[in-house]
UniProtKB/TrEMBL annotation:
Signal peptide: 1-22
Entry-linked InterPro entries: GASA, SERF1/2-like
Region named Disordered: 80-140
Name this polypeptide is given: Small EDRK-rich factor-like N-terminal domain-containing protein
Biased composition (Basic and acidic residues): 82-91, 99-123
Keyword flag Transmembrane helix: no
Domain of life per record: Eukaryota
PANTHER family linked to this entry: SI:CH211-39K3.2-RELATED, SMALL EDRK-RICH FACTOR 1
Natural source organism: Arabidopsis arenosa (Sand rock-cress)
Length: 140
């Protein structure tokens, strides 16, 4: 009789386990892959994830379109925002030479340099106007 009770308990346990897994597979409560990557989202989560990813781009409409298109296929969203990817592409195009203010000058030195350049430009312009005879008033 004890043998029958043990076998009954084991089969009951296996039966209950089988049906609990089947119910979970039919209606999953969360994403299948919790660590990210392909299959880490459900189709219902794609729009919200794409809104976050495309939040900082200046081309929001195409970013959202293609992000949602890809997300519906792979159930994943690339990491980072579109702005970060745009900066990486621009940096790659310029060969790593971006705009920098690292010229070794203090702000005061920059102001002095710029003022001197403006004075030289104004002097050149005045010299060009003087050599052409003043321009407008000498036509007869």
């Amino acid at each position: 009789m004890a043998k029958f009770i043990v076998i009954f308990i084991v089969f009951s346990f296996l039966f209950a386990t089988q049906f609990s897994n089947a119910k979970e597979l039919e209606n999953p409560s969360g994403p299948i892959h919790k660590e990210g990557g392909e299959g880490s989202l459900t189709i219902g989560q794609c729009p919200a994830a794409c809104n976050v990813r495309c939040s900082a781009t200046s081309h929001k409409k195409p970013c959202l379109f293609y992000c949602n298109y890809c997300c519906n296929k792979c159930l994943c969203v690339p990491s980072g925002t579109q702005r970060e990817r745009d900066r990486e592409r621009a940096l790659a195009r310029t060969g790593g030479k971006g705009k920098t203010k690292d010229d070794g000058l203090t702000p005061e030195q920059r102001r002095e340099r710029d003022a001197k350049a403006l004075q030289e430009k104004a002097a050149k312009k005045a010299a060009a106007a003087a050599s052409s005879g003043g321009g407008k008033g000498n036509n007869k």
